[in-house]
Write a structure and sequence with these properties.
The complex is a heterodimer. Chain A is an all-beta fold. Chain A is about 0% helix and about 45% strand. Chain B is mostly beta strands. Helix content of chain B is about 0%, strand content about 50%. Classes of the chains: A mainly beta, B mainly beta.
């Protein structure tokens, strides 16, 4: 049982927009901790996708965007591409301890 | 370039200990903390703990308290994670990650597979 809740799976056709939610509580996201997002391709280490709720590291396409409100956050991917098929994880802190969402598998139809 | 390089795969028997290393290069080691994250086969990411490379302060996940120790050697720019009294459910890929000033993990090691089996 993860501290942050994500849907196990989402899917979309190429070119479409999908969103992945990350729901926390008043002790983590709601306590003003930032939310960060990672993309993990099969057999590889996670890669930072969004930091500080809504910032993209250099090299990450602007098709990826993040938002945070209250005790939840979301990751949006527009113009879906086949290469976006991966697992996505949100991450934050709870009483200074790290916490992750359970992960969401994105399937590009 | 900035990177974290981890030690190789390990196979251990139940009850044994394992120590995984994570060598940093390309940046000032003591500026950023190191977190350890593990991933059991087919499962999600699990945060294990954090160590300050500046002063050695640590935070561990509650479920691992008493079995895990994280250390650093600033002379070799290397972080270590030791896990004791291994069980089969400790079988996982273990990652080290650099914690940026924003709290995200901007650099990851390549992962170390630890298999616990009799």
């Amino acid at each position: 049982q993860s501290v942050l809740t994500q849907p196990p799976s989402v899917s979309g056709a190429p070119g479409q927009r999908v969103t992945i939610s990350c729901t926390g509580s008043s002790s983590n996201i709601g306590a003003n901790y930032d939310v960060h997002w990672y993309q993990q391709l099969p057999g590889t280490a996670p890669k930072l996708l969004i930091y500080g709720n809504d910032n993209r590291p250099s090299g990450v396409p602007d098709r990826f965007s993040g938002a945070k409100s209250g005790t939840s956050a979301s990751l949006a991917i527009t113009g879906l591409q086949a290469e976006d098929e991966a697992d996505y994880y949100c991450q934050s802190y709870d009483s200074s301890l790290g916490v992750f969402g359970g992960g969401t598998k994105l399937t590009v139809l | 370039q900035v990177q974290l390089v981890q030690s190789g795969a390990e196979v251990k028997k139940p009850g044994a200990s394992v120590k995984v290393s994570c060598k940093a290069s390309g940046y000032t080691f003591t500026t950023y903390g190191i977190d350890w994250v593990r991933q059991a086969p087919g499962q999600g990411l699990e945060w294990m703990g954090w160590i300050s490379t500046y002063n050695g302060n640590r935070n561990y996940a509650q479920k691992l308290q008493g079995r895990v120790t994280m250390t650093t050697d600033t002379s070799t720019r290397t972080a270590y994670m030791e896990l004791r009294s291994l069980r089969s459910d400790d079988t996982a890929v273990y990652y080290c990650a650099r914690r940026s000033t924003s709290g995200d993990y901007d650099i990851w090691g390549q992962g170390t597979m630890v298999t616990v089996s009799s």
